[in-house]
Specification:
Layout lengths: L6 E6 L3 H12 L4 E7 L3 H11 L8 H5 L6 E4 L6 H10 L3 E5 L6 H14 L3 E4 L6 H11 L6 E9 L13 H4 L3 H17 L2 E9 L9 E8 L4 E7 L18 E8 L2 E7 L9 E6 L9 E5 L6 H13 L9 H20 L3 E2 L1
Parallel strand pairs: 1-2, 1-3, 3-4, 4-5, 6-9
Antiparallel strand pairs: 6-10, 7-8, 7-14, 8-9, 10-11, 11-12, 12-13
Helix pairs in contact: 1-9, 4-5, 5-10, 8-10
């Protein structure tokens, strides 16, 4: 497929992530276009079609896959349907960008990977944080050895969305779990981006808002490098991040600290859809090119990670780049989540 050839997208599922992220991202890219949408709810499908300027909409996902003007699909369904529609899209020769978490089980991940490999189509998992310019700059700083060898990380991500307790996210047959399945996939992917592959996981969790699954979790990871990370996730905290205040209905708070033998990195991010830069600070014990000894405030470009994610996917479809978040990456992220869930249940350390 030539670079000048537009890529036509079909949306399978038209909920919040489609409206808040994927549709605006595609609208911002001149050679991308939404040509088909589907949802089990006709009202939601019609609303998405009207937003995208389409005269037709579907309640049967297969009609999006079979649509002659669809080159690639974005699977935005709940996780229990990811495998089915990824496999069917692959069998139809359509490339797939699948929302996280990739699936509910590693076996489902393997089925998706195998189907896309057999059909020779792209399979990418929607981990948009990889494309945040601040996160990419932080990774480069780590690779350049500015803070020495990383040995400890702290990662906190929380927000306030009480309606989640009435949503499919608390139905394990649909979501595969609770807040860890919802959010730890992001933290696992980001920490793998920064620190490499994980080797072992421990976890404790609780569920103050109702019966299992969990509302909150504290996870400890040991990486193959020997580095440790403590991750806390919650969907019921009301506190505001003082750096980036957000409305109470979100109360978004994401903070990352990575400590190395010669310094540290601190990251604070705004609510995930805001088009503003993250705050990135670097402490180094040495005078280095581009850094002075002590704390350095690093300028980062405004965030447009959903747009950059789609652009990267399009370049992968065209054979111009290797996929940065492949099905195997999605599987590795899910393996961390499942290990944390098992560790919480058994009170043991789970190796990967």
């Amino acid at each position: 497929m030539q670079t000048s050839t537009p890529i036509r997208f079909g949306l399978i599922g038209t909920g919040g992530i489609a409206f808040d992220a994927h549709i605006p991202a595609i609208e911002a890219i001149p050679d991308a276009k939404v040509t088909a949408v589907s949802n089990r709810s006709e009202a939601k499908a019609r609303c998405a079609a009207e937003r995208c300027g389409l005269a037709r909409w579907f309640t049967d996902n297969q009609q999006v896959i079979d649509h002659p003007e669809v080159d690639a699909v974005i699977v935005c369904t709940p996780p229990n349907a990811h495998t089915e529609w990824t496999v069917k899209a692959a069998q139809a020769g359509k490339h797939v960008l699948c929302e996280k978490p990739m699936a509910r089980t590693l076996a489902e991940c393997d089925t998706m990977i195998e189907a896309c490999a057999k059909a020779k189509v792209q399979l990418m998992i929607a981990e948009m944080k990889r494309f945040n310019p601040g996160f990419r700059k932080a990774r480069q700083i780590l690779q350049d050895g500015v803070i020495g060898t990383p040995f400890l990380a702290r990662y906190h991500n929380s927000y306030f969305e009480p309606h989640t307790r009435q949503a499919w996210w608390v139905v394990p047959e649909v979501s595969g779990g609770g807040e860890m399945m919802n959010e730890l996939t992001h933290q696992g992917n980001t920490l793998r981006f920064f620190l490499g592959e994980a080797a072992a996981v421990t976890c404790m969790s609780n569920h103050p808002q109702g019966p299992p699954p969990e509302d909150n979790a504290a996870v400890t990871l040991r990486f193959q490098s020997g580095a440790l990370a403590v991750v806390t996730v919650s969907w019921m905290t009301k506190q505001y991040n003082p750096t980036f205040p957000a409305p109470l209905e979100h109360a978004w708070d994401e903070r990352i600290e990575i400590i190395g033998t010669d310094g540290a990195i601190r990251i604070e991010t705004p609510f995930t859809y805001w088009k503003v830069p993250i705050q990135l600070q670097v402490y180094t014990e040495r005078d280095l090119p581009g850094f002075h000894k002590g704390w350095n405030l690093i300028r980062c470009a405004p965030t447009q990670h959903y747009i950059d994610q789609i652009r990267h996917f399009m370049r992968c479809v065209r054979g111009e780049e290797q996929c940065e978040v492949s099905g195997r990456d999605g599987r590795a992220d899910l393996a961390i989540v499942l290990a944390a869930m098992r560790a919480a249940e058994t009170g043991t350390t789970v190796t990967l």
